[in-house]
Amino acid sequence: MKKIFFSYIQFLPVILILPYLITILINGPESSLVMRTPDVESCLPVILSLQIKEDYEPEAVKAQAIIARSNVYRQMEEGKNIFDILEKTGEKLKDTYGIKDIVSKLESWEIYEEAVSETEDKVLTSEGELKLIPYHEISSGMTRNGQEVLHNEEYSYLKSVDSSGDKTAADYLNSVYVSARQMPKKLVIKSRDSAGYVTMLLADENPLEGEAFRQGLGLSSADFTVQIVGSKYRFLCKGKGHGLGFSQYGGNSMAKEGSTCEEILKTYFPAMNLEDIWDIR
């Protein structure tokens, strides 16, 4: 009985936030307004559980917790309230687990509770401001430069950094075969960015943006090569995701080697600073 009680107390923040999520899922976001407004810290473990694998090293999960917190507060600065964020979280939670299975997943969320608690109120900033902080599963070995990819100096705080640890991931390389009948007659890679990701293709002389092309075709990454194999196009991709910001696999590799979450974040965001949210608000 004592063990059960302490297990309940341990996961209390997650348990407390579930009514908000379930109410929103069943009755819509307006219904939750009659309930006490939840705070960001109590929401973060659930949000975090949808962003990074539970079997990753604690320091890597803590790094993701800081990124998640930073993005939540940034969204709130941009006009969203906590219920807007919870609505999207609830929908994704339902799609991932299903309402009936949410409570049964609580015990696997201990690492998320601890990551949020141990990084309480910590956020990443650029020149004292909250910014978009992207993340992805596996880079191609280098993360991408924000200004180069998004064509805006506003994102210059996202630097391209070495993430060669990603090359050891089991799914670092991924092949996708597409029937030639579904493809343009002529497909040419026109340009790549400095990290090797395709930025522009020509499909029968029509320009296509690299990231949009990879998402439309369901490729794991825009760092790909193309070969014609018989009656099919073969796309060999490196990495998994858009390649901007934090590489979770790379961060986990650093954590396995003894790096702290602060050291991990400094590696992936060398132009950003770790601060307390209440020091900048």
Describe the structure in your own words.
A 3-stranded antiparallel β-sheet has the order 3-8-7, with no helix packed on it. A 3-stranded antiparallel β-sheet has the order 4-5-6. It is α+β, with helices and mostly antiparallel strands. It has helices spanning 2-10, 12-27, 40-49, 58-77, 82-96, 99-102, 110-118, 146-150, 210-217, 248-256, 261-268, 277-280, and strands at residues 122-125, 135-136, 173-179, 187-192, 198-203, 206-209, 224-229, 232-238, 246-247, 273-276.
Question: What keyword list fits this structure?
Answer:
281 residues; alpha+beta; 3-stranded antiparallel sheet; 12 helices; 10 strands; disordered N terminus
What is the topology, as strand order, of the major beta sheet? 3-8-7
What fraction strand? Answer: 15-25%
Instruction: Count helical runs.
Output: 12
Kindly name the structural category.
alpha+beta
Q: Over all CA atoms, what is the radius of gyration?
A: 21 Å
Distance between the termini: 43 Å
Count of distinct strands: 10
**Helix-strand sequence:** HHHHHHHEEHEEEEHEEEHHEH
Instruction: Please summarize the sheet with the most strands.
Output: 3 strands, antiparallel
Estimate percent helicity: 40-55%
Shape: globular
Tell me, rounded to a whole number, the average pLDDT: 86
Query: Would you identify the regions where 5 or more consecutive residues have pLDDT less than 50?
Result: 1-16, 22-35
